[in-house]
Every structure is written in structure tokens, then in C-alpha cells.
Amino acid sequence: MKAFAAKVEEGREGKNGMPSVGPVYRNLLSKNEFPPMDPDFSTAWDIFSVSVKNHPRNRMLGWRKIVDGKIGPYVWKTYKEVYDEVLHVGSALRASGAEPGSRIGVYGANCPQWIVAMEACSAHSFVCVPLYDTLGPGAVNYIIDHAEVDFVFVQDKKVKEVLNPDCKSSKRLKAIVCFTSLTEKERDKASTIGIKPYSWEEFLQMGKEYPSSIFPPQSHDICTIMYTSGTSGDPKGVVLSHENLVALVRGLDLFLDQFEDKMTVEDVYLSFLPLAHILDRTIEEYFFRNGASVGYYHGDLNALRDDLMELKPTLFAGVPRVFEKVYEGIKKAVEELNPVRRTVFGMLYNYKLGWMNKGYKQRNASRLADLLAFRKVKARLGGRVRLIISGGAALSPEIEEFLRVTCCAFVCQGYGLTETCGPTTVCFPDEMCMLGAAGAVSVYNEVRLEEVPEMGYNPLGTPPCGEICVKGKTVFTGYHKNPELTKESITDGWFHTGDIGEMLPNGVLKIIDRKKNLIKLSQGEYIALEHLENVYGITPIVEDIWVYGNSFKSVLVAVVVPNEEITNKWAYSNGHIASFSKLCSLDQLKKYVLSELKSTAERNKLRGFENIKGVILDPHPFDMERDLVTATLKKKRNHMLKYYQVEIDELYRSLTGDKHKA
Fold first, then answer.
1. Tally of CA atoms within 13 A in the half-sphere of 520 that contains its CB
2. Helix extents (H) in 214-273
3. The pLDDT of residue 232 is above 70
4. 10/460 Cα distance (integer angstroms)
5. Exposure pattern of 549-575 as b/e (b: 16+ CB <10 Å)?
6. Is the model's pLDDT at 72 over the cut of 70?
7. What pairs with residue 412 in β-bridges?
8. Segment (H or E) for 151
9. For labelling, which of 173, 250, 320, 345 has a CA lying 20 to 30 Å from the CA of 290?
10. % the chain with pLDDT above 70
């Protein structure tokens, strides 16, 4: 069997109460030691400024102008034009009082101004702090205060949220710079609370009038504090250094050098995943490293196909929910074909898949199938896509296989976290053995599994399973202002991810579970299950509740033990005479419980994806007899899933029409 990672250290049994640990794995390119870093690149500023020198006239950032209410074609700024703007914005920040180490917030949808502000931070050793409101109510207020943000660049649609009276920390801001322009009302409001308001053009002009020399960072300096979901309550500030980012980019260089299909300055990326998240940020940094082009979506995810057809990107990256929609769209189109053409499509699919499974590269597996059927699928993504990347959560193996066969492009999954600066493992293109897996460890990292005895996961067992631990140059330096959590998460340099992995015999990692009760839905959003159970548990009709989410699904479901007294009152007032067990099987009661859960969600201002969309009612309490809880009544989540699996599968089928397992 072909190996994709090198075992560099054997595992060992746990002693004195310590957990067992599995072998340490490295990328084959790092078998003996990590390769040397590129001497020309030690910071994010180097990534950008060197490309400006090498590719000044290349298209760098593109966007679509709206003229007379209509969205026009993409217009572009070159690397040199962006560089000049970066110098002006950096100078304006210095003129406004920013010093090296100052925290600069950026808040809004992806656009060229976002990147200009980010690069200006790198030019002067400022710390870029993305603001992201879907981390929960009050997140922007919390981040401005917690990160001690002094200046904020903000999209026009988001200005009101920064100036909202509920955003009490905005009073600490010295200036607010709009990506476009501010209304007079917004200017007055900002001035009233002591914030200097600027339009984008005004800020550029100030930079031209008060030029300032750049103050580039060192590799160990903080590049960004990127906030991510906590298990409950406040977001966590992940501190990433310039070295973290550069090690990731350098590692991707070395990784991609192994393959025939190289990235070029002609490549184009459609950016729509939030720049406040690590996946989009790292992809864009890699494009800038290579002098390639990034075009931004026009702001409407429902009209993303229009941007695809206009931009015709060569790289398309998304979270599983995006690819689920692509898959559903293609399957629907196939189902609408006449029976003969539908049969031919199926035959061509199986024929190409057969050759791919025998080791043929996707582009050579069946050129005839591509010509007759699959080039039309590729056309739905703009017609030029060479590489599709799925990240943020696990992609269903069925959908991954379908995309690999039909999109006429490489399809890769990876695994990583904000704390690891993105990809910790990456799949190899054209390796069908990696289907459903997360790939091999990246160049500048090491991976090992650690025992989780309470869940029965043993890294020295068969197959080896345990908590994924990561060590290396891309691992973060710690959580901002949270030494306790940092100490809890990092032991002897090993970052404990909280994810459970299985190491396949060829050194490829597969994600199989989550240690903490924090999961991602298929659209990439984190869900804190225990926190939601605490919130929903206050609903009067709920005696107990177990919330379940799946990374291949976009909605949450729950098993609810109803309160018997309240249920009987409901039954009496609605004309139902039956035992408590019989009542729990009634669809009317399920609908009532769902409506009560929805009311609780609204009262507690839960986000849309935190709403329960389907319930199973169990008249019996979660008990030790069925091995559903521990002696201290903590839920055994993996046992509960096994116990309710059939009903959960049926519930998901009724909600989504999905024929596949939850």
C-alpha cells in the first residue's frame, strides 16, 4: 500500500494515569526534518510586497460595480495599484495615532478594501482583527473590547451595528473608516461618541497628505487575532503570528511542487467564504504569493452562479453546504432528462468512476464521458475550474465521489482549525483511496492521536483512534487574554484539537467524532450542543433533551423527554385521551413541542442554524439501564446516537428527503 505520511516516532502506553499516545506522523517531505523556510519570506508583508515587485501589472483584486441597479462585469486593480492604496491607508492610520502593535478591526463582506486594510496592517506591524457578527449576539462588541481595537474599517451596511448603543465598546474607537462612504446621520452619531468618521476616499487622501514610512513586522510578531466560536458564551481570540502564516504558504508551495498541475499567475479564485475565517484568508494569501487574481462575489450568495459565470474561476472553494447545493442541482437536472439520456449519464458515470478507481487520473479516465456529459457540469462552475476545495466541515463521501467524477477537476478535502492556521492535513489530487478522508499531514506539522478512554478510543488499538493532536510551525501561539484555556489546549507543544481521528494504514487521517460537544453543521457553522441543551432545557414541556447535529447535515434535531404533567394538560385541552407513551407518538404533540422550542430559541436570541427542526419524543427518561447516561447523569453521546440511530435517520429523511444515513 502506498504511504502518504512517515511515522517518525512510535506510540506508547499511558502510565501513572496519563493517556496512551499513538505514533507521530509527518509529511513525507519532512520525514527527517522540516525543510528550510524560504529566506525571502518571513512575514505576510513579504508575501504581498515581493509579488508587487515580481508582478506589478498582474490583476490582483476584482469586484463587480453596480451601475443603475445592474451588476456589471468584473473590474480590477493591479498589484501595483493595490500596493499604492496600502501605503496611503497605512500612512493615514499612522497619522491617526496608530502605532506598531495597534489592533485594527475589519468588519464586512469580502471586498478589495478588506484586503487593503489587512495589508496596511502588515506594512506597519499593526494587528488585524476581523470582526464577525455571526459568532453570536454581541460578538462585535465583545471583540472590540477584548482585543482592544482602536480603529475599524467597516462595510457601509455594518456601520449601524458598530454605532449601535448596544455596542458599548465602540466608545473606545478613535476612528471608523467606511469601505465606501458614510451618511451625514452616521457621521454625526460617530462624532457624538468621540469617533472620527472617514469615507474610504477621505482616508486615502489623508494618507497622501501625511506619508509615513512602513514599519514591517518580524516573523514572531502577531499577524492577526482571529476569533472563533467557544463551546458557549464568548468567542475565543486565536493569536496567529507571521511565521504561522508564512509556514503554511511555504508548505503549500512544497506540497504542490510534487504534482504536474502547477498554479500559475493566470489562476483566478472566487472569494465568497468569509475573510474573517481562516480558510478564505489562507487561500487568498497563497494566491497573492503567486501573483494570481482574486475576484469577490457581489454580495448575494443566492446569485453566486452569476459570479461564477462572469469570473470563470480556476479554483472554487466552499464549505460542504455549498457543494451539497451543487450536487442537488446537478442531480435534479439529471432526473429531468428523458429516460434514455438519464441511463446514458449513469453508464458514463460508472465507466469513468471504474477507471478512476483503477488509478487513472480524472482527466484521463474517460475523455468521452467528459465530452458527452460532464463538461456541462463543469460549465455550471464557470467552465475553467481546475481545483475544488472543500473545508470547514466533513464532506459526504458520496458527494465527494460525485464531484470527482462529474466536475472535470481535482476535488480535495482538508482538515484544519483556526488554531492551526488552516490546513493541518490535505488530500492528494487523484487519489481515490482518500475519498471520505482528510488527507496526510501538512509539511510543517506533526500529528498524533491521544487516547480518550471515556469514549473507548485507543490510538494503539485496531484501528488506531483518538483525539487529534498537532504540533509544528503553523500552530497558534495561544488564546488572547486566556492563559488558562491556552494551557488546557496545548501540552508540551501539542495542540489538542478536540476532534477524534482514525489513522488509516497509509498514514491518511480520517475524522470520525468530536471529543467536546462542539460540532460543525455542513455550512461550516459551529454548534455548542451542551450550551443549546441548557437553553432548550428551560422550555416547560421539556423534561430532558439531547440535541444532535451532523457535519453532513445543515439542520439540528433533538430527542426530547416531555414533561408528563404538562403533556397531559396539553392532551386534555386538545381532546386526546391516551397513555403518556401513546401521546408521545402523536405528530400533533411533536409539532407543539417544536413550536415551544422555537419560542425558547427566539426568547434567547439563538441563531437560525441553532433552531431545532425535528424532534423524537421519548416517554422514558435517559437512564443508566439503557447505557444512555453515566452515574452522574452525563449524556453518553455516542451511545445515544447508536440507540436512536434508526429514528434519527428516518427524521432526517422526512426533513430533507435524504435517503442516506444521518
1. 21
2. 242-256
3. no
4. 10
5. bbbbbbbbbbbbbbbeeebbebbeeee
6. yes
7. 389
8. strand 149-154
9. 320
10. 97
Q: Which of 157, 148, 164, 152 is nearest to 182 (CA)?
A: 157
Instruction: Give Rg (Cα) of the chain.
Output: 26
Q: Say which amino acid occupies 58.
A: N
- Secondary structure of 557-593 as H, E, C letters: EEEEEECHHHHHHHHHHCCCCCCHHHHCCCHHHHHHH
The amino acid that residue 551 corresponds to is S
Cβ atoms of 466 and 445 within 8 Å: the answer is no
Q: Residue 484, CB half-sphere, CA atoms under 13 Å: how many?
A: 0
Among 417, 461, 465, CA closest to 442:
417
pLDDT in tens, 388-400: 999 887 788 888 9
Residue 596 neighbours by CB distance under 10 Å: 19
Cα 660 to Cα 394, 397, 648: the distances in Å are 15, 11, 11
Amino acid at 332: K
Per-residue pLDDT of 118-145, as tens digits, reads: 999 999 999 999 998 766 568 899 999 9
As a whole number of angstroms, the distance between CA 52 and CA 544 comes to 59
Report how far residue 324's alpha carbon sits from residue 320's, in angstroms, rounded to the nearest whole number. 6
Separation CA 383–CA 373 (nearest Å): 13
Task: Count the Cβ atoms, other than its own, within 10 Å of residue 390.
Answer: 25
Backbone angles phi, psi at 363, to 5 degrees: -75, -20
* CA–CA dist 369, 387 (Å, integer): 19
What's the pLDDT tens digit per position in 342-379? Answer: 999 999 999 999 999 999 999 999 999 999 999 999 99
Overall average pLDDT of the 24-28 stretch = 97
Query: Three-state DSSP class for 163?
Result: coil
If you search the block for the grid coordinates 444512555, which residue do you land on? Answer: 628
CA 583 remoteness from chain centre: 41
* Rounded distance between C-alpha atoms, residue 77 and residue 61, angstroms: 5
Q: Give the helix, strand, coil percentages of the chain, each rounded to 5.
A: 40, 25, 35
Helices (H), 73-149: 79-95, 112-123, 139-146
Query: Residue 178 corresponds to which cell in the numbers above?
Result: 467606511
CA distance 439 to 436: 9
The CA distance from 104 to 130, in Å, is: 8
Instruction: Say how far apart CA 487 and CA 495 lie, in whole Å.
Output: 10
d(C-alpha 296, C-alpha 312), whole Å: 12
